[in-house]
Each structure stands twice: as structure tokens, then as C-alpha cells.
């Protein structure tokens, strides 16, 4: 598996994500936001957490219009895998690769703690390492994680089994407790919680590791 | 020439910041405030000849997220 991790000014989970990919045997290329192409042979693009461009205008809005994001969108349109975590999820909604938007947390506070998540579907190359319905503990760290989409979009996400993760105890006001969603081809994942921060025993939890192991298993021959 | 863009959360999208401001106003003794919606104003300094349609294109592509926000453009 060859993973590219995008680095924006203000990204702060890029190296954590690279470590999590490497831990399952991936080759990892760090890609700067001004680059105009992805490295040859990339299977999956990771859009990491952080505060790209200082969260100016809207979280993820400037990053979504950066040169590399055109390539990320083209990669997704070719059927490539893209995974956006936290700020990366905000970037993917701003690009339109995933539906909806992330609003300010309902309680207005930045929340940084480990929360229980329910694996809503095992039917994806990201979640196949879990049992559907399993409860896992994954850290969140965000101010704008309140998932919003219109009623038709929410119904469609449920109808197509595209909700990947839901919160066990909704911390931020997200509609339908949504913590992560998939694209219609199930190859683009956006999620607010940080599986890369629960992928090593040193993190205090390893419930995120199965996501990276499942990806490595699926993409090894891609 | 100048353009002023007002960006607001759409009706139906909960505005927790506006709600917090409404609560604060009530707690300070200002009565009769039934709702507060908070948005932003973006002022653009443009070359002569720029049109409202140019600014609307900027709104659609960057200045507003039309999934959650509406915008109005004033040219002057």
C-alpha cells in the first residue's frame, strides 16, 4: 500500500497519520499543499487533522481550493481511496467529495477527549476489521465537528449504508449522531474522530488500529 | 469599486453562536430579543468593471458554503 499524506500550513496530525500508515507496512509520501501532482502509484490519500490555513474563512475552505486538492479530487474520481480525518473531513466536505458540512459544536466548546463510537457499517475497506455495531473508543479533538446535511442527504446516507461511525454519546450536536461517512463508492471516508491517535499501545488505546490493518489488507495488491 | 458580501447561516441551520449571544443579552437584562443570528461581512476592493456576477461566482466557489450558508452581494 502506498499512502500519500497531504501537508497544509497548520496541519498537525500529518506525522501521526504517516506513523499509523507505516505501522501497517505502507510506503508513505508526504505531499505539500502547493504540489500539483500526487506521487506515482498512490493507493490512498490521507487528509490529516489540524488547522489548515488557520481555519480562516471556514474550516477547510482554503485548503479545499489549494492546488493539491484538485489532484486529490481527481484521484477520488478515478476510484482512488481518500481518507479525511478531523480537519481532513472538513476539507473533503468543502471540496464536495463528501456531502454535508461541519458546523460549530452545539456546546460552542472545543472538545478534546476519548469518546465511544459505534461502527455503523463493516461494509467498507476502512471498517471491515470491525463487527458492525461494535463499540470502540477513539479520541476527538475539534471545535467544528457538528455534522449537518439536509434531511434528504441524511436519509440517503442511511439508505445507502454510508454512515461509517456514530457517536455513542453525541458530544457536538451532529445530526443522527454521525461521526463519519463514506462516499457512494465507499472509497472516500471522512470522520471527525482520530483513529491515528488510537493505533499504538503508547497512545493509551488501540481501537483505531483495525482501520489501518483493514486498509493494508485490502490495498496490498491495488 | 467595492463589493460587500453578507454571509449568513441558512434558515433551519442551528446557529449555536447566535443562541449564546441571545442568552447573554437576556442575562444582561435586555428583554424582548427573540432570536439572534450571527453571520459575517466580507468587503472586496475590486478593479473597475467588476460585476455582481463576478462576486457571486466568488461566493459560490469560496466565500460561502452553500450547503449551510446563504449570501447577498451589494456593489458600490
TrEMBL record, chain A:
Pathway assignment: Purine metabolism; IMP biosynthesis via de novo pathway; 5-amino-1-(5-phospho-D-ribosyl)imidazole from N(2)-formyl-N(1)-(5-phospho-D-ribosyl)glycinamide: step 1/2
Entry keyword annotation includes Nucleus: no
UniProt-annotated catalytic positions: 86 (nucleophile), 194, 196
Keyword vocabulary terms for this entry: ATP-binding, Cytoplasm, Glutamine amidotransferase, Hydrolase, Ligase, Nucleotide-binding, Purine biosynthesis
InterPro entries hit by this protein: Class_I_gatase-like, PRibForGlyAmidine_synth_PurQ
Cellular location(s): Cytoplasm
GO MF, any single term: ATP binding
Enzyme Commission no: 6.3.5.3, 3.5.1.2
Catalyzed reactions: L-glutamine + H2O = L-glutamate + NH4(+); N(2)-formyl-N(1)-(5-phospho-beta-D-ribosyl)glycinamide + L-glutamine + ATP + H2O = 2-formamido-N(1)-(5-O-phospho-beta-D-ribosyl)acetamidine + L-glutamate + ADP + phosphate + H(+)
BP GO terms, sorted: 'de novo' IMP biosynthetic process
Pfam families to which the protein is assigned, alphabetical: GATase_5
Recorded GO CC terms: cytoplasm
Alphabetical list of PANTHER family matching this protein: PHOSPHORIBOSYLFORMYLGLYCINAMIDINE SYNTHASE SUBUNIT PURQ (PTHR47552)
Function: Part of the phosphoribosylformylglycinamidine synthase complex involved in the purines biosynthetic pathway. Catalyzes the ATP-dependent conversion of formylglycinamide ribonucleotide (FGAR) and glutamine to yield formylglycinamidine ribonucleotide (FGAM) and glutamate. The FGAM synthase complex is composed of three subunits. PurQ produces an ammonia molecule by converting glutamine to glutamate. PurL transfers the ammonia molecule to FGAR to form FGAM in an ATP-dependent manner.
Quaternary organization: Part of the FGAM synthase complex composed of 1 PurL, 1 PurQ and 2 PurS subunits.
Name of this protein: Phosphoribosylformylglycinamidine synthase subunit PurQ
Organism: Sulfitobacter sp. TCYB15
Gene that specifies this protein: purQ
Amino acid at each position: 500500500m502506498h499512502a500519500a499524506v497531504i501537508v497544509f500550513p497548520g496541519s498537525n496530525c500529518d506525522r501521526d497519520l504517516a506513523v499509523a500508515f507505516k505501522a501497517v507496512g505502507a510506503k508513505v509520501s508526504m505531499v505539500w499543499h502547493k504540489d500539483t501532482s500526487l506521487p506515482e502509484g498512490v493507493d490512498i490519500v490521507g487528509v490529516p487533522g489540524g488547522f489548515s490555513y488557520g481555519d480562516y474563512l471556514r474550516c477547510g475552505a482554503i485548503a479545499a481550493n489549494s492546488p493539491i486538492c484538485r489532484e486529490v479530487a481527481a484521484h477520488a474520481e478515478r476510484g482512488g481511496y481518500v481518507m479525511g480525518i478531523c480537519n481532513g473531513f472538513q476539507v473533503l466536505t468543502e471540496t464536495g467529495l463528501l456531502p454535508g458540512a461541519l458546523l460549530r459544536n452545539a456546546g460552542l466548546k472545543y472538545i478534546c477527549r476519548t469518546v465511544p463510537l459505534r461502527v455503523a457499517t463493516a461494509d467498507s475497506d476502512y471498517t471491515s476489521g470491525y463487527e458492525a455495531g461494535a463499540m470502540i473508543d477513539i479520541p476527538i479533538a475539534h471545535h467544528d465537528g457538528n455534522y449537518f446535511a439536509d434531511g434528504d442527504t441524511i436519509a440517503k446516507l442511511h439508505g445507502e449504508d454510508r454512515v461509517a461511525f456514530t457517536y455513542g454519546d453525541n458530544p457536538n450536536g451532529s445530526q443522527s449522531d454521525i461521526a463519519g461517512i463514506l462516499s457512494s463508492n465507499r472509497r472516500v471516508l471522512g470522520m471527525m474522530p482520530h483513529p491515528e491517535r488510537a493505533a499504538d499501545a503508547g497512545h493509551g488505546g488501540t481501537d483505531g488500529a483495525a482501520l489501518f490493518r483493514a486498509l493494508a489488507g485490502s490495498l496490498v495488491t491495488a | 469599486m467595492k463589493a460587500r458580501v453578507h454571509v449568513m447561516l441558512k434558515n433551519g441551520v442551528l446557529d449555536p453562536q447566535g443562541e449564546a449571544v441571545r442568552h447573554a443579552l437576556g442575562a444582561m437584562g435586555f428583554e424582548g430579543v427573540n432570536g439572534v443570528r450571527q453571520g459575517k461581512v466580507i468587503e472586496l476592493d475590486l478593479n473597475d468593471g467588476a460585476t455582481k456576477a463576478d462576486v457571486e461566482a466568488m461566493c459560490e466557489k469560496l466565500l460561502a458554503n452553500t450547503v449551510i450558508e446563504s449570501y447577498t452581494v451589494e456593489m458600490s
